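User: Assemble these into one structure.

Assistant: Restating your components, then the assembled model:
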Amino acid sequence: MGGVARRVGVVGIGLIGGSVALAIRRARPDAELVGVDRGPALERASAMGVFDRLGSELSTVASSDFIVLAAPVRQNAALLPRLGEALRSPALVTDTGSTKRVVLEAARSLPPHVSFVGGHPLAGAARAGAGAARADLFEGRPWLLTPCDATRGPADLERVRVFVAMLGAQPRVIDAEAHDRAIAFLSHLPQLTASALMHVVGCAVGERDISLAGPGLADTTRLAASPPAIWRDICATNSDAIVPALDALIETLTRLRGDLSTGDVIAEVFGSAGRWRGIVERSTATDEDE
Amino acid sequence: MGGVARRVGVVGIGLIGGSVALAIRRARPDAELVGVDRGPALERASAMGVFDRLGSELSTVASSDFIVLAAPVRQNAALLPRLGEALRSPALVTDTGSTKRVVLEAARSLPPHVSFVGGHPLAGAARAGAGAARADLFEGRPWLLTPCDATRGPADLERVRVFVAMLGAQPRVIDAEAHDRAIAFLSHLPQLTASALMHVVGCAVGERDISLAGPGLADTTRLAASPPAIWRDICATNSDAIVPALDALIETLTRLRGDLSTGDVIAEVFGSAGRWRGIVERSTATDEDE
């Protein structure tokens, strides 16, 4: 896999971009690694001590042959045309955003010497920012890949596949529409639910009684620590898939609400949920370090 | 605390009743410990090897001076009048149910020589049944106590307080109404939400794609493994407090649904949720073994 990525550029150095950089450096000590970010994030990236060169302009990655866009989704989409202009020689670009259709649409305007494959690592952590980055963040985790019109050939998809495997992830190709719909349920709905639940519970019980919270509430609301800025972008670029997911949850909660005394809906929903939970436990049994 | 409970009876030997028995045995090796349950649960209780005597009738605890009711809430309430008849000498009874008003109402019919103090240990585990019982389940956890008309004097409240402290818990007295309202938000709403979410996500994505689930979904749905039978009882005996909690969550989810594109509600709800989450993290920081 020596030739997959000799000169790697990372644009947006938070938890994901920082972990990509650490994982590359671990796998390819000799790769040239440059990064782009701004303000305090650039200072934190510098403190990581893993980049050969850092800058606040896209020209910093102008001579990279493999670029990872790891800013929030709408920033990635807005950066793509400018990145296309900045890149002087043939380059392969991928991203790490949680929604795929918007960035794939933006990739249509890329010049012919720039190829694009969408990407989405299914990895996260309780903390945001480069300070929480880890070389093993992607270890054993799925990394979804969405080839598109701007993918200049099957060899480019293969290069991205080898690249993410090099970071420890398990690549899997998926259509962008199917991706956005599945992730609305698997990731976006749990996030919105955890945040809504934490907000409602906190406001209702207040500071004194929140200390009664046990491990159940703590688990259920762990995602509520996620940064709002990233989620504004995700929700704005996937609202048509998130709305039906929210509707399905609201409908189930409403059915439970109407049947608390008899318990028939409780039996049905808890029975179904228990079976699905068993499957989730078996499939995430190796992720307990999260 | 030698005289708090010489002859202890446990009625209902699942996760909680079994853990109470193990914690008593650890703290008071010389106490007489008897238990009541039926069928396979009685066999599992026997396998624990911690009880001096076991039986399937309430008469088994007739000579106990301290009885812990640890069956589902409505069973506890139904058992109380019969327990009152079965007890031959003065005894103090407490329970471990997640709702308090219904059992306190049932306690009004107890004869004068039987005293009652409601109790609710805020402890849980991912697994149900005596097989999952642990002597340290209550270590450092709050144990809410609700004295009532059937509490025959302040000395009885003090005895229960000393008893739960002996099990490692932190006793805290609370009014039954306030208890049921706060716990509807702190425990019942998270449980219903986790089960509803797991049901909706599983049904939407199916067996193949559920394997993409990451630690976020796994955390948010951990409670979905809870046994339906216990929750039918809890919901049936606290529906008037759970309905407003569900309404508040449905309202917040509906507001998020209507604002996915602009993100103002996301910013508001995630901001509030992040602040409450910080408080929950600090207050449950020692519970990471759960």
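DSSP finds ten helices and eight strands in chain B.
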